[in-house]
Amino acid sequence: MANPVQFISQVRAEAAKIAWPNRREVVTTTIMVLIMATITSLFFFMVDLLIRGGLTFVLRSVGG
């Protein structure tokens, strides 16, 4: 088991190696995520409409 002081020292050394994004990178990636989430939600909305329309057509053809 490692010495707690040595452990904290190693954690600080590893944390110092982290490359934090700047403000522009954060804003850019946030906008990209929002755009992709919107596109994905629109895609699944359209797929849902197609499936619902198809099922409605089949059920009306069979049932009535």
TrEMBL record:
Entry's Gene Ontology cellular component terms: plasma membrane
Membrane topology: Single-pass membrane protein
Biological processes annotated in GO: intracellular protein transmembrane transport; protein secretion; protein targeting; protein transport by the Sec complex
Transmembrane regions: 31-51
Record carries keyword Heme: no
Localization terms from the record: Cell membrane; Membrane
GO molecular function: protein transmembrane transporter activity
Pfam families in the cross-refs: SecE
Record has Translocase as a keyword: no
Keyword entries, A-Z: Cell membrane, Membrane, Protein transport, Translocation, Transmembrane, Transmembrane helix, Transport
Stated family: Belongs to the SecE/SEC61-gamma family.
HAMAP family per record: SecE
Subunit structure: Component of the Sec protein translocase complex. Heterotrimer consisting of SecY, SecE and SecG subunits. The heterotrimers can form oligomers, although 1 heterotrimer is thought to be able to translocate proteins. Interacts with the ribosome. Interacts with SecDF, and other proteins may be involved. Interacts with SecA.
Function: Essential subunit of the Sec protein translocation channel SecYEG. Clamps together the 2 halves of SecY. May contact the channel plug during translocation.
PANTHER family per UniProt: PROTEIN TRANSLOCASE SUBUNIT SECE
Name listed for the protein in its UniProt record: Protein translocase subunit SecE
Taxon lineage: Bacteria, Pseudomonadati, Pseudomonadota, Alphaproteobacteria, Rhodobacterales
